[in-house]
Amino acid sequence: MTFPFNNVLVTGAAGFIGFHLSRRLLKNGVKVVGLDCLNDYYDVNLKRDRLKQLEAEDGFTFAQINLADREALEDLFRRQPFDVVVNLAAQAGVRYSLKNPHAYVDSNIVGFVNILECCRHFSSGHLVFASSSSVYGANTRMPFSVHDNVDHPVSLYAASKKANELMAHTYSHLYGLPCTGLRFFTVYGPWGRPDMALFLFTKAILEDRPIQVFNHGKMQRDFTYIDDIVEGVVRVMARPAAPNSDWRGDRPDPGTSYAPYRIYNIGNNNPVQLMDFIGAIETALGQEARKEMLPLQQGDVPATYADIDDLVRDAGFKPSTPIQEGIDRFITWYRAYYNV
To answer: pTM of the prediction?
Structure first.
């Protein structure tokens, strides 16, 4: 696949999604500047090992910068023009936002406005940024649609992602900056984050420790395999957001705008029961989990389910990796990486 861009900035390049996206772009001949601050929210060695994979590819340059460092970010943009900026750097995690809210303001709010300002002043052609299924918050109408109102977040993490969408729309309106927000649904796969359920469950089962099953197992998640996420991102990157000529202020559509601004869900469009997810891990490991049943945690929602009609229509792509296949690939990577 050839892309209509040559130079891309990927923030959060040492992170889970940023690593996979950068590798895909590099293998297709795109030059990538990968930005990351290598914070210690989780194992920095895992981030460094991802970076080693990227640094072995032609066309990759690493910049260790914190998005909150405005001067360093401006200097990077001044020295290097970008056709597309993909902002995947963020303080992640719903539960951690209950413990350390200031980290989310510094990274997800201050850092994001710095990205917007650089894209504005240094004429980046298209800003693609990570939002989250968490923005749906207290919504219960399924599947979640980008055309529904999302004004009732239930965690600060979700609120920071909703704020990113609002900030991006403002820059699209004021400066004509094409901005596309992507609401990711529970991403999993090789090289994944250690704070996510698949990683935590796998580690605990192999160590014969009980796994924590919240809401007494009555959870559904639209688990989405990393390769499907990356395919959706690269297709959206190639389609800068355009104004919706049918948009009306008396019937405002949250997913589009009169400005060059769009929101898409990227999810598997097939929610899986948490107990079935655990069963797939047990099958892949050949080992049964010991389960500690717990109530729903603050900030969590009982179910997620992505309406991806807009993504299918505009990008011509629908995620399709079956859950057992994706988990099998993760377990194969995990055993090799940790030598277990």
So the answer is: 0.96
